[in-house]
Amino acid sequence: MGDVRFQKPYDRLKDSTGRAEILRSMSSEDVIAALAAASREQDPLLANVLASEAQNRVSREEAALECLGEGVCIVDAQARVVHINRAGADLIHRPATEVLWHPAREVLNLIDPTLGEAGGLRPEDVVLATGRGIESEEGVLTPNGSDRKVLVGYSAAPVRREGEVTGVVIAFRDITQRRRAEQALAQSEARLRRLLQAIPDAILVIDPNGCVRYVNPAAEDLLGRGAQELLGASLGIPSVSVGGAEVDVSGAGGTWRLARQRTIPFEWENEPAFLSIYSQVREPKA
Amino acid sequence: MRLSSGKPTGTESPPEPRWEFQVFVVGRAAPHSQRAVLNLQRILDRHLRGGYDLKVIDLREQPELAAQEQLIVIPAVVRKHPPPSVRLTGDFSDEARVIGAFGLEATPTASPSAEGKRLG
Which of A239, A250, A258 has its CB closest to that of B72? Predict the structure, then answer.
């Protein structure tokens, strides 16, 4: 099948005119197939040209892989490591030469708990079985059977030759620090929300367009409205000086209550906002 | 209450489009209502050369407007023109906030004699 596919370019390559241009237009897979054909036909000159082109391409691709900040591991159809770049070897704390031809399940031990059921699956196994690529931020690397777990985001894509899946390229990056920072931020925000819930003063978070983004229970009481009604409502952009100002706030049943409003610039869910605090001055006005 | 067009005299330049504001208060005689209106008028006089209309609406006189305009915190001022509608609340003592929200930065500074037309 390969011979038929490459008969035409191969014949064109026999003529040295425009050979460089023809080579440039060929995929790496085409170059390998043409090299096989040249060897079979015992054309050493053309075989040399094609072997040199193939070697150049491999060198360029390997150089590109080595420069990547992401770990890249290529496995064959038996899920054995056939290449791992420097960033990947650094992440598993082993030299690349040591892990070649070892099963990826031992070298990387990459499990994605979101794949399949009961503890997750290995992405390379899934890609080899289905031929479909995967992208996920939920990978867990436990390299070399150690206890060291590394949270990774990864993408796994099939390598195909003549339509057959012959391997998998797995690109992965350590997201442990990022995940810890996200968890710390989430915990911090949860603490802040608990604090705001407990404060007896009415508190509203207002976005730069004047819309309500958060209300605490005291604000629901003061304004006589539930959070569902208040969230998203256009309250208005607060304009009060540092010392605060007296304002009237609408309570239940169309009453108005005098309150002292203080407002500070704030950040809410990573966006600029205003934190407005309302302390009731006295009971509903006559 | 002063009523004035605020237009400089003796010039032939075409009239500039007027800015329109509505300020809502609960009891126009209440000290905090008066303070808010005065703060607002001072800022608008300074930045709009009097080329604006400011309508003061007392929700004690027109309570139905609170629900209609979905007013929750008063004093509130709404810029009706030019669009889009922009709403501020408080006593408007944070001048930078008023200028930024209403887009008054690019407007020329008013002469000391320029005044706005206050309605209502």
Answer: A250
